TrEMBL record:
Chief localisation class: membrane
Subunit structure as annotated in this protein's UniProt entry: Interacts with NEDD4 and NEDD4L.
Location of the protein in the cell: Cell membrane; Endosome membrane; Golgi apparatus membrane; Membrane
Catalytic activity: 2 chloride(in) + H(+)(out) = 2 chloride(out) + H(+)(in)
Residue stretches making up the CBS domain: 656-720, 752-811
Identification of the protein by name: Chloride channel protein
Any one Pfam family match given in the protein's UniProt record, by short name: CBS
SMART domains xrefs: CBS (SM00116)
Stated role: Proton-coupled chloride transporter. Functions as antiport system and exchanges chloride ions against protons. Important for normal acidification of the endosome lumen. May play an important role in renal tubular function. The CLC channel family contains both chloride channels and proton-coupled anion transporters that exchange chloride or another anion for protons. The absence of conserved gating glutamate residues is typical for family members that function as channels.
Family to which this protein belongs: Belongs to the chloride channel (TC 2.A.49) family. ClC-5/CLCN5 subfamily.
Length: 816
C-alpha cells in the first residue's frame, strides 16, 4: 500500500544485492498479529496469483537470456506482472478495470461461436456456483465443530458407557430411568469418580471430578495452543479484525489458506471444549472466509482478480455468521455493516444465497438435536409493556459501560503482551489462564457448564416441568387452568441461583479480558452475550418479584394485576445479551436482526433496538472504537475507516513526501535510463513504486510504475529477449527513442506503466484527499503543481496523518 515509503523491508531487494523477489510473497513471511509469532513456519499455503516465478534465479543484472526470440511486451503478458507483494494493498481501480476488460472480451467472443457462448454463460454462473460451494462447506464445518465441541465439553465430566461417541444428552435420550428432577442422571452416563473410584458421593469423589475437569481443560488448551504455534499461527484469535483489513484490500498471504482452515477448525473445538471464556462465533467467520478463499482458486475469474475475490470473502463472512447464530439475514447485514469495505448490490444477493445455503446445510445436519441452528433458540409469548423500556434502557447503559470497560482493559492487556516478555510464552499464558478459569469454574454450576448452555439457561422462559434452579418458584395456583404461568414468588432455588449468577458475572467480566487475544481461536460474541444475559436475568427476576409483591404500585397497577404473567425474565436476559454485544462490537442493525432471528418474535424488536442504540451511544461517549477497530489500530494494520470523518484543515502539501529538507523524490525518466540505472534505484530504495516523468528537469508527469512489475519485467527480458544488457535503454514511450548505432537493444516497458495515476494539486484539502482514498481504495496519489510533479501521498501517509491529528502515535502504522 505505501508505495513511497514502507515500514516493512521489501524482502525481494535488500540494499546492495538482488535476491529473488519471490520471498516477498512467501507464506513463510509472517506478520505479528494477535496470536502469532514471527518464527512460526507456514508451508504449502496459497501461492501468489498468476503463476510462480522461479526462485533459484538471483536478480543480479547479468547475462543475456537463453532464448533468441524477441519478446513483444505489448502483445504477450508477463507472468507475475499485476500481482502484489505480501503485506501490501491491492489497487482497487486497476483490479476493477481488469475485470471489466475481461468481461468485455468474453461478451464480444460469445457472439462468434457456440463454444464461446457456453463459456460466457458458465462465467456468469460461476459466481452462484461458488456461493453454493461456500455455503455447503461452511455449513458442514460448522456442524462438525458444534457436534465435536458438545461431545468434548461433556468429556470433562464423564463418558457414556454405551458409546464413547455420545455426549451427555444423547447418552440419556432413550433411558427410561431419567426423571424431570434429575434429567442429567442416567445409568449409562458415568462421571469420572464413578469410573475411577466407583462412587460419586462424598468429598473424595468431588475432588476426583474436580481434578479430572481441570486436567481435561488443560489438555485441550495445550493441544490447541501447540497446534496453532507449530502449524498455523494465523489460526489464533477471532480473525474478524484481520478479515476487515483484508476486505479493505490488504494482502496477508496464508491467513485464509488451507493450513489455517484445517488447524482453526480443530483448535476451535479444543479451545471451546477447554471451558475458557470464549466463543466459536467469531472464528466461524474466519473459517467461512478460508473456505471462500480456497474455493476461489477453482475459478479463474476470482483466482486472478483480488477485488473480485474480496466480493466472495464478503459473502463468505455472511455465511459464517449465518451458521454461527442460525441467522441468514443477520449474517448478510453483519457483513454489510461490520466487515465489508466494498459491498455492491450483486454481492448482497450472493451473500444472501451463500447464507441461505449455509443455514440449510447446518439445519440438515441438526447438530443440537433440537431442529434449530443454535443451542439457545427461544420463543417468548408474553407481550412487553411500555414501562419495561426503562429497565431495557438500563440494560443498554450497562452494555455500553461494559463494552467501553472491556475494550480499554483488553487493549491495555494485549499491548502489554506485545511489548513485554509475556508475548514470548504463549503456551504458558494459555495454560495459566485455563488453569485459573477451570479451578474457579468447577464449584459453580453456571460457570462449569459451557457458555452456550448458560445462555440457553438464562434465555429460558420457565415452564411447569423445568427443574432448573432458576425455575424454582412456589406454585400457589391451579395448574389445570392452562395458559401462561402467572408471576410467582421465588423459591430457595431462585435465590441460590441469583448468588451463583452474580459470582458468574464477576468471573466472566474479569477472565474474558485476559482470554480474548490469546494465541488460540477465541471469539467474543458468546462471552459478551453471557455477561449481558446474566445481568438481564438478574434484573428480570428482580422486576418479576417486585411486580408480584407490589402489583398495587402505580407503575404496575395499570397493566399488571395479581395472578397475571407480567414479567418475562428470559426476555430481559436476551435484551441484556444484545446490549453487551452491541457495546463491545458497536453493531446495531445486524445485531437486532440476529437477536430477532434467534427468538422468532417480531414484537421484541423495539426493546432490542432501544437496548442496542443505548449501548452504542454510551460506549461511543466513552470511546469511539469497537473492539475490532481497536485491535486493528493496536496491530498497525493499514485500515482506513470509512465511518470516521476527517475534520482538520490541512492540505495535500502538508502530508506529501518529500518534505522540506528531505531527499528529492525518486523518479524514473521515460526514455533516458538504462537497465543498470533502474536496477541501482531498486537496490538502494525500498519504495513500492516510482513516478515516471518526461525528464528530471521538466518533472512533467507521464505515469506510475510498480516496483514489483519492474523487477519481473526486467528479469523476464533478460531471460527471453536477445541482447538486453545493463546498458540497454528502458523506455516507457510509444516509440523507441533515437539511438546511436551499435547500441544494445532497448527495452520497452510501456505495458506496465499506469498512464492515468490519480493526481491532486498541492493545495487540495486533506479532507478531500482522505475521501478519495476511502471511496476509490487508492494505494497512492501523486501531487502536482501546474502539471509538475511535486510529491506523493500513500495510504500509509494518510493513516499516519490521521493518527497525528488525533494525538496518536503515527509510527503505529506498521505495514506497507
Amino acid at each position: 500500500m505505501a508505495m513511497w515509503q514502507g515500514a516493512m523491508d521489501n524482502r525481494g531487494f535488500q540494499q546492495g544485492c538482488f535476491n529473488s523477489f519471490q520471498s516477498s510473497s512467501s507464506d513463510e513471511d509472517l506478520v505479528d498479529i494477535p496470536g502469532t509469532a514471527m518464527n512460526f513456519s507456514l508451508r504449502d499455503d496459497v501461492p501468489p496469483l498468476d503463476g510462480e516465478i522461479e526462485e533459484d534465479k538471483s536478480y543480479n543484472g547479468g547475462g543475456i537470456g537463453s532464448s533468441t526470440r524477441m519478446m513483444d511486451f505489448l502483445e504477450e503478458p508477463i507472468p507475475g506482472v499485476g500481482t502484489y507483494d505480501d503485506f501490501n494493498t491491492i489497487d482497487w481501480v486497476r483490479e476493477k478495470s481488469r475485470d471489466r476488460d475481461r468481461h468485455r472480451e468474453i461478451t464480444n467472443k460469445s457472439k462468434e461461436s457456440t463454444w464461446a457462448l457456453i463459456h460466457s454463460v458458465s462465467d456468469a454462473f460461476s459466481g452462484w456456483l461458488l456461493m453454493l460451494l461456500i455455503g455447503l462447506l461452511s455449513g458442514s464445518l460448522a456442524g462438525l465443530i458444534d457436534i465435536s465441541a458438545h461431545w468434548m465439553t461433556d468429556l470433562k465430566e464423564g463418558i457414556c458407557t454405551e458409546g464413547l461417541w455420545f455426549n451427555h444428552e444423547h447418552c440419556c435420550w432413550d433411558s427410561d430411568q431419567v426423571t424431570f428432577e434429575e434429567k442429567d442422571k442416567c445409568p449409562k452416563w458415568n462421571s469420572w469418580s464413578q469410573l475411577l473410584i466407583s462412587t460419586e458421593e462424598g468429598a473424595f469423589a468431588y475432588i476426583v471430578n474436580y481434578f479430572m475437569y481441570v486436567l481435561w481443560a488443560l489438555l485441550f488448551a495445550f493441544l490447541a495452543v501447540s497446534l496453532v504455534k507449530v502449524f498455523a499461527p494465523y489460526a489464533c484469535g477471532s480473525g474478524i479484525p484481520e478479515i476487515k483489513t483484508i476486505l479493505s484490500g490488504f494482502i496477508i498471504r496464508g491467513y485464509l489458506g488451507k493450513w489455517t482452515l484445517i488447524i482453526k477448525t480443530i483448535t476451535l473445538v479444543l479451545a471451546v471444549s477447554s471451558g475458557l471464556s470464549l466463543g466459536k462465533e467469531g472464528p466461524l467467520v474466519h473459517v467461512a472466509c478460508c473456505c471462500g478463499n480456497i474455493l476461489c482458486h477453482c475459478f479463474n475469474k476470482y483466482r486472478k482478480n483480488e477485488a473480485k475475490r474480496r466480493e466472495v470473502l464478503s459473502a463468505a463472512a455472511a455465511a459464517g455468521v449465518s451458521v454461527a447464530f442460525g441467522a441468514p439475514i443477520g449474517g448478510v447485514l453483519f457483513s454489510l455493516e461490520e466487515v465489508s469495505y466494498y459491498f455492491p448490490l450483486k454481492t448482497l444477493w450472493r451473500s444472501f444465497f451463500a447464507a441461505l445455503v449455509a443455514a440449510f446445510t447446518l439445519r440438515s445436519i441438526n447438530p443440537f438435536g433440537n431442529s434449530r441452528l443454535v443451542l439457545f433458540y427461544v420463543e417468548f409469548h408474553t407481550p412487553w409493556h411500555l414501562f419495561e423500556l426503562v429497565p431495557f434502557i438500563l440494560l443498554g447503559i450497562f452494555g455500553g459501560l461494559w463494552g467501553a470497560l472491556f475494550i480499554r482493559t483488553n487493549i491495555a492487556w494485549c499491548r502489554k503482551r506485545k511489548t513485554t516478555q509475556l508475548g514470548k510464552y504463549p503456551v504458558i499464558e494459555v495454560l495459566v489462564v485455563t488453569a485459573i478459569t477451570a479451578i474457579l469454574a468447577f464449584p459453580n454450576e453456571y460457570t462449569r457448564m459451557s457458555t452456550s448452555e448458560l445462555i440457553s439457561e438464562l434465555f429460558n422462559d420457565c415452564g411447569l416441568l423445568d427443574s432448573s434452579k432458576l425455575c424454582d418458584y412456589e406454585n400457589h395456583f391451579n395448574s389445570s387452568k392452562g395458559g401462561d404461568l402467572p408471576d410467582r414468588p421465588a423459591g430457595a432455588g431462585v435465590y441460590s441461583a441469583m448468588w451463583q449468577l452474580a459470582l458468574t458475572l464477576i468471573l466472566k467480566i474479569v477472565i474474558t479480558i485476559f482470554t480474548f487475544g490469546m494465541k488460540i481461536p477465541s471469539g467474543l460474541f458468546i462471552p459478551s452475550m453471557a455477561v449481558g444475559a446474566i445481568a438481564g436475568r438478574l434484573l428480570g427476576v428482580g422486576m418479576e418479584q417486585m411486580a408480584y409483591y407490589h402489583h398495587d404500585w402505580a407503575i404496575f397497577n395499570s397493566w399488571c394485576s395479581q395472578g397475571a404473567d407480567c414479567i418475562t425474565p428470559g426476555l430481559y436476559a436476551m435484551v441484556g445479551a444484545a446490549a453487551c454485544l452491541g457495546g463491545v462490537t458497536r453493531m446495531t442493525v445486524s445485531l437486532v436482526v440476529i437477536m430477532f432471528e434467534l427468538t422468532g418474535g417480531l414484537e421484541y424488536i423495539v426493546p432490542l433496538m432501544a437496548a442496542a442504540m443505548t449501548s452504542k451511544w454510551v460506549a461511543d461517549a466513552l470511546g469511539r472504537e469497537g473492539i475490532y477497530d481497536a485491535h486493528i489500530r493496536l496491530n498497525g494494520y493499514p485500515f482506513l475507516e470509512a465511518k470516521e470523518e476527517f475534520a482538520h484543515k490541512t492540505l495535500a502539501m502538508d502530508v506529501m513526501k518529500p518534505r522540506r529538507n528531505d531527499p528529492l523524490l525518486t523518479v524514473l525518466t521515460q526514455d533516458s535510463m538504462t537497465v543498470e540505472d533502474v536496477e541501482t534505484i531498486i537496490s538502494e530504495t525500498t519504495y513500492s513504486g516510482f513516478p515516471v516523468v518526461v525528464s528530471r528537469e521538466s518533472q512533467r508527469l507521464v505515469g506510475f510504475v510498480l516496483r514489483r512489475d519492474l523487477i519481473i519485467s526486467i528479469e523476464n527480458a533478460r531471460k527471453k529477449q536477445d541482447g538486453v544488457v545493463s546498458t540497454s535503454i528502458i523506455y516507457f514511450t510509444e516509440h523507441s527513442p533515437p539511438m546511436p548505432p551499435y547500441t544494445p537493444p532497448t527495452l520497452k516497458l510501456r505495458n506496465i506503466l499506469d498512464l492515468s495515476p490519480f493526481t491532486v494539486t498541492d493545495l487540495t484539502p486533506m479532507e478531500i484527499v482522505v475521501d478519495i482514498f476511502r471511496k476509490l481504495g487508492l494505494r497512492q496519489c501523486l501531487v502536482t503543481h501546474n502539471g509538475r510533479l511535486l510529491g506523493i501521498i500513500t495510504k500509509k501517509d494518510v493513516l499516519k496523518h490521521i493518527a497525528q491529528m488525533a494525538n496518536q502515535d503515527p509510527e503505529s502504522i506498521l505495514f506497507n
